[in-house]
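Batch queue: ligand-bound targets. Current item pairs a single chain with S-adenosylmethionine. No template structures supplied; prediction is de novo from sequence plus SMILES. Inputs echoed for audit trail.
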Amino acid sequence: MDWERSYQNNEIPWEKGQPAPPLVEYLEKNKISGHVLVPGCGTGHDVRLLASRGCHTHGIDISSTAIDLAHQYPKPEFGTATYRLVDFLASDNNLPTRHYDFVVEHTCFCAIQPSQRSAYIKAVHRSLKPGGYLLAILFTHLEEPGGPPYSTTPAEIETYFTPMFTIEQYWRPTRFHEGRDNEESMYLMKRRDLSKH
Ligand SMILES: C[S@@+](CC[C@H](N)C(=O)[O-])C[C@H]1O[C@@H](n2cnc3c(N)ncnc32)[C@H](O)[C@@H]1O
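Prediction returned. Tokens below.
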């Protein structure tokens, strides 16, 4: 998938012009604070939503056009929203390690090849502070085979993530982008400290 070409050609059906409804719903009842990383942020709607709640939010994307578009939005009044061109999966990408309080995932995990999932999970672990959290909105109930978006199952998520994370909460959100009804699940996972093992 050539993400940069999709943005250049304006072939971006995932771009909804607003933050992810499951994240909006979560933030109505729960607080996220501190330094937050949003991998595969696209044009940055989730980044700005989190900043508006007071977070210091850093959005990264592999497409320079997406990052340019993100920079064109007004800065949020609270918190901070910054954007940078970064390949999240590259181990030498100069992202700070053990730095973020939260990683907020929405439509990046489903965008990468299933063979890259292990690199993704290592990248989340590397980015988070000890005791940090991954809040993930994942496609778990898509009918179509193949991708992107690549669906996954709750059983696969447990297999992939539990070596490095403890799943503290799992639930089904009730708000979705149009056309994505009941396709997503949410997970709150705590980074495990692997140095103790
Ligand atoms: C389906 S889009 C979702 C974008 C945004 N989260 C949204 O909901 O509008 C997936 C995004 O992940 C980005 N992406 C794919 N692979 C990436 C990688 N290795 N590192 C960083 N971003 C990546 C793509 O450029 C694209 O913007």
